[in-house]
């Protein structure tokens, strides 16, 4: 059966979705519910659902970033947003990131029925047939079971509301793409990080992985990750800190950064820090040791090694060159 997860901070909504919908007729079962975004993330990583029904306006989360993280890391998973947040631009962005349906509370039963049928149809088109077998990505891949009648269902995202008067959503096919992430590698094309060398896979597996890392959701995640590093480079920043902020695993974020920038996390962080240090070195009143600490290096020797590796000369030589012009 297809595995379903429900995430909403309103208990009455969670109970209603769990108890009112006849999940068995869709060949589905609810494997877990959560009352906030953080619990929801834990639930999704533990249960690996095929279908997620979730609010995006819950305390302590950035809804769009959470959606992007889920679609990037668990690409085949189908997502329907059920929310009271009535913002057309927000709905468009959610659909662009890979959401199947964007429904406004309170939603009619026929809207939920249509959303579930379309999500199942999309899963079937990916060869995910709703059995207890699981693939390497944690989604069902068995060839038995039937999702029921999916007649009339489409496979593009849409919006709706209870009165049927909500904004007309933009389909994923027609939505504008996010700008490609700029390659920040200093030389050459993107490289595969040590320890992440590609393993033997069939062509379909390689195509699926390439699609997931190049998806709008993945581009959105990388842009947010780079922005967070840029804003927090002075801190004692770890890959896990960034991953937590954008709702993906460390492993997945590392893969995305290498794919889109050609650099690993440490290289990206050090590049930012050294560029900031170069700016500060233009001020002769600042001590190099103070500059190193200002840009996030706790050890002067480490700063010196990284700076020389990046710039080709020492920090002091760089300062003398700049000031001598």
From TrEMBL:
<protein>
    <recommendedName>
        <fullName>Stage 0 sporulation protein A homolog</fullName>
    </recommendedName>
</protein>
<keyword id="KW-0238">DNA-binding</keyword>
<feature type="modified residue" description="4-aspartylphosphate">
    <location>
        <position position="55"/>
    </location>
</feature>
<dbReference type="Pfam" id="PF00072">
    <property type="entry name" value="Response_reg"/>
</dbReference>
<dbReference type="InterPro" id="IPR001789">
    <property type="entry name" value="Sig_transdc_resp-reg_receiver"/>
</dbReference>
<dbReference type="Pfam" id="PF12833">
    <property type="entry name" value="HTH_18"/>
</dbReference>
<feature type="compositionally biased region" description="Basic and acidic residues">
    <location>
        <begin position="198"/>
        <end position="211"/>
    </location>
</feature>
<comment type="function">
    <text>May play the central regulatory role in sporulation. It may be an element of the effector pathway responsible for the activation of sporulation genes in response to nutritional stress. Spo0A may act in concert with spo0H (a sigma factor) to control the expression of some genes that are critical to the sporulation process.</text>
</comment>
<dbReference type="InterPro" id="IPR018062">
    <property type="entry name" value="HTH_AraC-typ_CS"/>
</dbReference>
<dbReference type="GO" id="GO:0000160">
    <property type="term" value="P:phosphorelay signal transduction system"/>
</dbReference>
<keyword id="KW-0597">Phosphoprotein</keyword>
<feature type="domain" description="Response regulatory">
    <location>
        <begin position="3"/>
        <end position="120"/>
    </location>
</feature>
<feature type="domain" description="HTH araC/xylS-type">
    <location>
        <begin position="223"/>
        <end position="321"/>
    </location>
</feature>
<dbReference type="GO" id="GO:0043565">
    <property type="term" value="F:sequence-specific DNA binding"/>
</dbReference>
<dbReference type="GO" id="GO:0003700">
    <property type="term" value="F:DNA-binding transcription factor activity"/>
</dbReference>
<keyword id="KW-0805">Transcription regulation</keyword>
<dbReference type="InterPro" id="IPR020449">
    <property type="entry name" value="Tscrpt_reg_AraC-type_HTH"/>
</dbReference>
<dbReference type="InterPro" id="IPR009057">
    <property type="entry name" value="Homeodomain-like_sf"/>
</dbReference>
<dbReference type="InterPro" id="IPR018060">
    <property type="entry name" value="HTH_AraC"/>
</dbReference>
<dbReference type="InterPro" id="IPR011006">
    <property type="entry name" value="CheY-like_superfamily"/>
</dbReference>
<keyword id="KW-0804">Transcription</keyword>
<feature type="region of interest" description="Disordered">
    <location>
        <begin position="128"/>
        <end position="216"/>
    </location>
</feature>
């Amino acid at each position: 059966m297809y595995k379903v997860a429900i995430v909403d901070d309103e208990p009455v909504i969670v109970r209603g979705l769990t108890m009112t919908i006849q999940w068995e007729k869709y060949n589905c079962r609810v494997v877990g519910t959560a009352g906030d975004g953080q619990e929801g993330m834990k639930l999704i990583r533990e249960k690996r659902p095929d279908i997620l029904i979730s609010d995006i306006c819950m305390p302590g989360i950035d809804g769009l970033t959470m959606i992007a993280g889920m679609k990037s890391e668990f690409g085949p998973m189908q997502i329907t947003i059920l929310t009271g947040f009535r913002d057309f631009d927000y709905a468009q962005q959610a659909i662009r990131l890979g959401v199947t349906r964007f429904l406004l509370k309170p939603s009619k039963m026929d809207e939920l029925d249509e959303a579930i049928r379309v999500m199942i149809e999309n899963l079937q088109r990916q060869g995910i047939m709703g059995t207890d077998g699981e693939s390497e990505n944690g989604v069902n891949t068995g060839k038995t079971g039937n999702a029921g009648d999916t007649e009339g269902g489409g496979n593009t995202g849409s919006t709706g509301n209870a009165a049927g008067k909500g904004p007309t959503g933009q389909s994923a096919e027609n939505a504008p793409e996010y700008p490609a992430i700029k390659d920040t590698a200093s030389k050459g094309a993107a490289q595969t990080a040590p320890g992440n060398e590609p393993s033997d896979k069939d062509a379909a597996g390689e195509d699926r992985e390439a699609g997931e890392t190049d998806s709008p959701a993945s581009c959105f995640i990388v842009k947010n990750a780079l922005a967070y590093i840029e804003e927090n480079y002075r801190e004692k920043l770890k890959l896990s800190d960034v991953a937590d902020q954008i709702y993906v695993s460390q492993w997945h974020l590392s893969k995305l950064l290498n794919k889109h920038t050609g650099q690993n996390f440490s290289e990206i962080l050090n590049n930012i820090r050294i560029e900031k240090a170069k700016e500060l070195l233009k001020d002769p009143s600042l001590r190099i040791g103070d500059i190193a600490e200002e840009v996030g290096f706790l050890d002067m020797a480490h700063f010196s090694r990284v700076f020389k590796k990046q710039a080709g000369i020492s920090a002091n030589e760089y300062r003398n060159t700049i000031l001598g012009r």
